[in-house]
Amino acid sequence: MLLLQIFTAKIAHSSYILAGNKTCAIIDPRRDVQVYIDTAKAAGWRITHVIETHLHADFISGHMDLAQRTGAAIYAPDMGKCSFEHVPVSEGDEITVEDMVLQVVDTPGHTPEHVSYVVIDTSRGTEPVAVFCGDTLFVGDVGRPDLFPGRAHELAD
Predict the structure, then answer these.
(1) Cα 134–113–20 angle (5° rounding)?
(2) Would you list the DSSP string of 140-151?
(3) Across the chain, which distance is largest between two alpha carbons, in Å?
(4) Within a 10 A sphere around the Cβ of 14, how many other Cβ atoms?
(5) How far apart are CA 35 and CA 6, in angstroms?
(6) Domains of the chain, first to last
(7) What is the reported pTM?
(8) Which of 49, 59, 80, 95 is deepest in the core (most CB within 10 A)?
(9) pLDDT, tens digit, for every residue of 32-43?
(10) Distance CA 21, CA 99 (A)
(11) Which residues does 3 contact at the CB level (< 8 Å), separation at least 6?
(12) Residue 156 host element (H or E)
């Protein structure tokens, strides 16, 4: 398992490449997807999964462009009721990328449909080794739960 962070400073956005030996997944891709295509090509990986933690209101995701250019499947939260072709995911679902299993956990707050992905590298064991939490948590902060003030009671539950 190899994990690479792609940070876009202008919008303080992090996306990730989660790679095995031959394939990789892109988590929360930015709009300009060439960096993922170039990185995967240089490493000899095929992009097979494009995974979203939530529907992004603060930037345009590159998920559709990346899927179109690579043939990868898009995975997005079921609660988002997305109109584009995708594999809907929700609490308890699992996505497999080579030896890695991404377990879906519902984490609403930043957005109602937000999910996180707990990563288990089965070649190392059964314990989680990473979590992709999208905009649920930031370094030293939480992910803007104030965007839906009328739903504060749901967060308290």
Answers:
(1) 45
(2) TEE--GGGSGGG
(3) 48
(4) 16
(5) 8
(6) 2-156 (3.60.15.10)
(7) 0.85
(8) 49
(9) 999 999 999 999
(10) 9
(11) 16, 17, 18, 19, 130
(12) helix 152-156
